[in-house]
């Protein structure tokens, strides 16, 4: 397994969904960053299940700082953060230990780890693991604040309902005001209905998220193998249920002409900028100073209440499965803060590699 990410700002995620805790160790954070538990808790709370859309697992998700923070400042030592798992009910998982859920990682994990993997609640493959990404992201965001980088994410599609394009102010204002984390409040209402319909039918829905980083310094990215796109995509694909990532015009670039897709250069306020941003802020794997814009597709939640065909891996015979228990009908809203976090963690690492964040914050 590989549970660490980053070269200078390194995060190591640990814990399982129904184990004792989930946690993260962050190494490489400079000393002197003003930080306390509440700063991290605020970010983690954004990922908690809200309303009827999500799992009924009622976790308090209280962040505990085990090391690396003293007198409300980082010490320069590894920061270890964890959340104890309290509301655990593994009974359903025990019953269907050998019946892999279609669409989930039960089958591949069982085969790869010879059945020794912690299967309860999906173990390391549970959405709960993304709480560890958000704790690391909270610190990365604080570091990026120092150089004026802002990271945003919002829901742009759920169950086929697409949000209208909104400006940055509306995104900033609206995302935390509705459980869908969507800047288009009308579309959010429709999305809610689609989710409720899927629930009533024992089904689930997927969707898409847009992630952005503003004020990103020019020059982040280490071609040819550690390109900014490459590492951002790797970070985003660590989020379970992500099935596609595109930057700027992305897959639509395939059908465009160069004259449409190129971003013409111009000079504004003495700075070189581009008139459009089809590149999504990255050229040659290096940030070009324009906003970084990416989109990602999230599949419908694999665990559904409907009867599905599967196999009994122990008896090697056909079986059917209805997944009971506590599951998100739509993963998308809960993944929004996770996307922000993984963008922040990646940018923080590259910013340090470019020498733009000092070793001691004074
Ligand atoms: C925030 C979040 C919550 C999730 N909640 C669930 C869930 O309740 N039920 C479920 O089956 N999958 C859930 N998932 C998705 C699974 O973890 C994921 O589909 C599975 O590990 C297989 O990985 P893959 O889809 O990337 O192939 C969630 C993912 C995230 C990011």
Identify every distinct bound molecule in the structure, by name, code or SMILES: flavin mononucleotide
Integer average pLDDT: 95
What is the succession of H and E elements? EEEHEEEEHHHEEHHEHEHEEEEEEEH
Computed Rg: 21 Å
Q: Specify the biggest β-sheet.
A: 5 strands, antiparallel
Structural class: alpha+beta
- CA-CA gap between termini: 37 Å
User: Beta-strand percentage?
Assistant: 15-25%
User: Helical residue percent?
Assistant: 25-40%
Strand order of the largest sheet: 1-2-3-7-4
Gross morphology is globular
Number of helices: 9
How many runs of DSSP E, i.e. beta strands? Answer: 18
Low-confidence stretches: none
Task: Describe the fold and architecture.
The protein contains 9 helices and 18 strands. By secondary structure, the chain is an alpha+beta fold. A hairpin with a 2-residue loop joins β8 (150-158) and β9 (161-162). Bound molecules: flavin mononucleotide.
Summarize the structure.
By secondary structure, the protein is of the alpha+beta class. 27% of the residues lie in helices and 24% in strands. It contains 9 helices and 18 strands.
Task: Jot down its keywords.
single chain, 362 residues, alpha+beta, five-stranded antiparallel beta sheet, globular, binds flavin mononucleotide
